[in-house]
C-alpha cells in the first residue's frame, strides 16, 4: 500500500517537472522513468525496501504516510489534467498543405524546401507520407502542394507547424547579393475517422472528364483528374496525381474530409483557444510563427522565443526539428494548464 | 516527288511496330525531330501539346504529359519531381519521346503507347488489341469486393470465393479482385482464429491455400479466393497470364481460352449436380494440370473450339463477373479512331442491342453458379431495362435482377443478378 503511494509520489514529481515552460523533459535517451518504477524495477524495489524497514516506520512513519497520501491525491489531480490536455484529434492522421506566400520565385523555392523537410521529418518519425498534389513553378520551386501523413501521434507532433514561415537569405535569383525576406504558409488539418465526420454522398458533386457522352466502353479517355465539390459548404478538393481515376477520387476525398473536419473543429474550439500564443488550425495560419535566417545560420520560433543554430541540419527534418517540436508541445501543455488553473481560481473567487 | 514518299518510308522504317510511324512523321514534313532549343520536360510537353492540337488529336495536353512523364520514369506529370521538369533531357530520352509522340499522331491510345496503365491500385501491361480497362470498371470491382466481404459464411466453410470472369482482357478485373481478396479473408480468419494460429502458406502453389496450424490439427488447408478467367482472344489470355505473373498472382488464377457463345446446346439437368465428386482442392489440382496444358500449349484450334463445358471440372462458382462487349452494333461506327482502329472489336461489339454476349452469360450461369450465386455485370445505360425484360422471358433460368448501380457519372451501369436458391 505504502509502496504504491510512494511510487505515485515520485511519478507525480516527475510529471510536474516536465510541464515547466522552457524546461525540457528529462533524459530522452536513457531508461524511461516509467520503466524504473515497474514491478521489480530498481527504484521501486528501493522504495519498497525503504518503506518496509522497521526503523523508518518507527522514526517518521506517520509523517511519511501523511506525505504519501497527499502525493497520491496530487497524482490523481495530475492524471485529470493530463486528460484535459489530451485532444480528441491527437492520434489522427493529417493533411499537410504548403503554399508559397510573398516573394515570388524565391518564396516558391523555399516552399519546395519546406515540403522536402516535412517529408524527411515523416521518414525520421517513421510515418507514412503520400503526396496528394504538387504544383511546381517554372524554375523548380513549388506553388502549392499537399500530402497525407499518417502514423503514431502524427497530428500531435505536426499540429504546431501550421502558420507563416519566413525566410531571410540571398535568393539564387538575386544578382546583386541583397538579402530578401519571403514567406510561405503551412496548414495542418487533422484527418477525421469514419466516426468523426459523416458526409452524405448526396452532398457531393464529383466532376471528371468523362461526365459528357456515353462513357464506359464507348470512350477511352486518359484524363483521370477528379474534382469533388461539397455542395453545402462549397469546399472543393481535386486530385490528378494518379493514372487510376478511383485512386484520384480516394485521395481527393481524403483531402475533402480533412478540410471539412477542420472547419467543424474550428467552430467548436475557436473560443477555447482564443488567448493562446500557440494557435492551431486556420486561426493560426496568418500568424508568423518562425524565421529561417540563413546569413545567421539560425531558426527562431517566435511563439516560444527559441532559436536553434545549424540551419542546414534543421532543414534535413530530423532531430533538430524534432527538438523544436518537443519544446512547442511542452509550452502548449504549459499554456493549457495555466488556462485551466486560472479558470478554476476564477470559479473559486 | 510523290514516289519518294514510300521509298523514304521503307528506308527509314526498321522492323517493328514503331517503324511505320517514324516514316510517317518524316513524310509529313513537320518539325517533329528533337529541336535544339527544346530540352526540358516542361518545354517538350508544351511543344507536343501544340503539335497534337494542330493535328486534332484528342486530349493533346494529357497525351504529351503522359508520354514525357513516362519517359522520365513517372506515372503522371503532376507526380514528376520538380528538378526533373527543368533539367535537360538526354538525346535518348528525346528520341524516345519523339517516337512515342509519333504513335499518338496515328491516334494510338496512350495506354498502348506507354505499354501500361493503372487499374485500381495495380499497374498492368497493355498491348493492342486487348481491350483497355475503363475507369467505370474500377467501380464494378469495388461492388464485387463489397459483396464478397459481406457474403454470409456458412459455418465451417473456410473456402474463399471461386470467381469466374468472362472476357478477362488484360486481366484487370480478375487481378484486382485477387489482389484485394486475400487480405480481406486474412483479416476475417485472424478474427476467427487469433493471429498467432495462422500464416500464409506460400508453398501451396496452384492449390492456393492458406494453411493453418494448431496443436490439435496437424495441417489444414483453407481455401483462398481464386479466379477462373475466360477469354476467346489469345492475345487477351496471354496478356492476363503475363500480368498475373508480374503481380505474382499466377497461382490463384486459371486462364481458359474459350468462347462462351459457342459450345454444345445443353438441356436442363446437364449442370453441376452430375459433375465430378470430391473436395474442391482435388478438383483444383486436376484443373491445374488442365489449365497448364491450355495456357502453355495454347493452339488456335483449342481456343476457338473450347466450349463452356471445359469449365465444369472446376466446380460451381460463387460469383460470375464480366464486363462483356455491350456497345450496340450501330454505335460501333461512331467510336473514336483510338478505339475503332486499335482495340479488339470482339471486346466491344455486343450485337444489335448489345445483348449478344450478355444473354449467353446469363443462359450459362445457372449451370456454372452455386445456388444463390451472384452475377455482376457492367452494361450500357440502356441495358438494365433490356436485361430485366430478357430475364422475365426466361423464368427457367431462376435468375433475378437484384440491384442496379450507377457509375460515378450517374448512369445506370452495373447489374447484380442472383440465382434463386433451390
UniProtKB/TrEMBL annotation, chain A:
This is Peptide chain release factor 1-like, mitochondrial. Keywords: Coiled coil, Methylation, Mitochondrion, Protein biosynthesis, Transit peptide. The keyword Transit peptide applies. It is found in: Mitochondrion. GO terms for molecular function: translation release factor activity, codon specific. Residues 210-226 form the Prokaryotic-type class I peptide chain release factors domain. It comes from Tupaia chinensis (Chinese tree shrew). PANTHER family: LD18447P, PEPTIDE CHAIN RELEASE FACTOR 1-LIKE, MITOCHONDRIAL. Residues 64-91 form a coiled coil. Mitochondrial peptide chain release factor that directs the termination of translation in response to the peptide chain termination codons UAA and UAG. One of its GO terms (cellular component) is mitochondrion. Pfam families: PCRF, RF-1.
Automatic annotation (TrEMBL), chain B:
Keywords: Methyltransferase, Transferase. The keyword Nucleotidyltransferase does not apply. GO terms for biological process: methylation. Signal peptide: none annotated. PROSITE patterns: N6_MTASE. Residues 43-115 form the Release factor glutamine methyltransferase N-terminal domain. It holds the Pfam family PrmC_N. GO terms for cellular component: mitochondrion. PANTHER family: HEMK METHYLTRANSFERASE, MTRF1L RELEASE FACTOR GLUTAMINE METHYLTRANSFERASE. This is HemK methyltransferase family member 1.
